[in-house]
Amino acid sequence: MTYQGHFRAIAVLGLPLVGGHLAQFAIGLTDTIMLGWYGVEALAAVTLASSFYFVLFLFGGGFGLAVMPMVATAAAEDDETSIRRSTRMGLWLSLLYATVVMPLLWWSYPILIATDQDPQVAETASEYLRVAGWGLFPALVVMVLKSYLAALERTQVVLWITVAAAVVNGLTNYALIFGNWGAPELGVMGAAIASVVTQTVSLIAVIIYAVKVLPEHSLFQRFWRPDWEMLLSVLKLGIPIGLTLLAEVSLFAMSAFMMGWIGQVPLAAHGIALNLASATFMVHLGLSNAATIRAGNALGRKDRAHLEKGAVAVTGMSLVVSILTIILFLTCAEPLISVFVEPQDPKRPEILAIGTGLLAMAALFQLVDGAQVIALGLLRGLQDAKVPMVMAGLSYWVVGIPASYYFGFIRGMEGVGVWLGLVLGLACAAVLLMARFWLRSVRIIAEPAA
Fold first, then answer.
1. 90 and 64 in contact (C-beta within 8 Å)?
2. Highest-scoring range by mean pLDDT, 74-83, 155-164, 385-394
3. Mean pLDDT across the stretch 206-222?
């Protein structure tokens, strides 16, 4: 396949995944915008709660992401049995994990207070998590089933289910946060209920599709029967992926905690800037998922030339997105931030001032953030997860978090310093992971015989 063919194939597979991630992101964005309109304290509380929730969610999401390369490789080998087995055990592990961590969401207040947060913000955040935490069960199941469908290159349905969920979330938020259409005004609790409703709607839709359109895989027949061999295989791949995700998301969660130490307004500005940076990251994440699927297919076919060309193509596409994002963040910072804050809010000028500086730092880390997630996608496709996990842990915890604290507090740079630490951690990860793929992992597929 030529490079042009690779660009086309990645676009066909990846664009619906990008759209699906953007629709998923829109769910969180809707919460942020509407809670920003409701009040700065509500926004700060949910920013803190969401950071805590996603630390737990993304670790559990490692099982769903493990299913993607396993199904892609099995599909390339025409192994229908392995497709069913890996997906089913991914569902098992996701449900078991949600059961184990639910108490942390239910009793989150002491944990949040232990991180030295404002007591009122921590109290509101813990109330939110007691309700929103129940959405972890459907959310993790949906992640497994979306990975299964994406690996089979059924990315269009993943997109449309997520778009429908985003619409449901927006309407439910509008009704329950503000008390519109005769609903009670519940504020932060309304956002929590909307989150659970949205995840449940997504779960129903994706199960119906899987059962009706792909009955040959019989995912839910005799679902109760264990498959210990495959469960162990998913576990071995899923835990390193989950820990890698945990290392990265905890870097951003710690940045939220540090911003909370600076004050309520900086934390709110951080939430806005992080949402804007996350929107562009969704494009890289969709391309990374496409890279995982295509690398998994190449592994199943033992096609090294296809793998190498595809890796160059997807990295180039990510680079173009990064350059466009840098231009946007540096030239349109204030209009972008203004969307999240009521014009009459007395704290608006301070939020705009802090947020503009944070977006400048977000522009700085676009290149390295895109590079590290593309490298991770390629490595996952080859089911190489243990060494990347160590690399990510070192980058985010040994470099990123200490650098954030050093520049933010010891050097007195506050929010901008905290974000500079994020840049350094992501840059370290990008270099190590790209080197891992090109110097070692790509070589597991032998060169074809002369």
1. yes
2. 385-394
3. 87
Angstrom distance (rounded) from CA 122 to CA 120: 5
138 pLDDT higher than 50: yes
Q: Which of 172, 177, 180, 142 is nearest to 20 (CA)?
A: 142
SS3 (DSSP) at 333: helix
Buried b / exposed e along 365-375 (16+ C-beta atoms within 10 A): bbbbbbbbbbb
Residue-wise pLDDT for 322-335, tens only, equals 999 999 999 988 88
Within 10 angstroms of residue 180's Cβ, the number of other Cβ atoms is 12
Higher pLDDT, 223 or 320: 320
List, for residues 314-324, the tens digit of each pLDDT value.
Answer: 999 999 999 99
Task: Please choose, from the candidates 266, 300, 446, the residue with its C-alpha nearest in 3D space to the C-alpha of residue 382.
Answer: 300
Global pTM?
Answer: 0.84
Amino acid letter, 25: F
Instruction: Please provide the DSSP assignment of 194-257 as one string.
Output: HHHHHHHHHHHHHHHHHHHH-GGG-TTTTTTS--HHHHHHHHHHHHHHHHHHHHHHHHHHHHHH
Provide the pLDDT for residue 446. Answer: 67
Q: Identify whether the C-beta of residue 438 lies closer than 8 Å to the C-beta of residue 405.
A: no
| Residue 101: C-alpha distances to residues 97, 109, 132 (Å) | 6, 15, 13
How far apart are the C-alpha atoms of 246 and 97, rounded to whole Å?
14
Q: Collapsing DSSP states into helix, strand and coil, what is residue 95?
A: helix
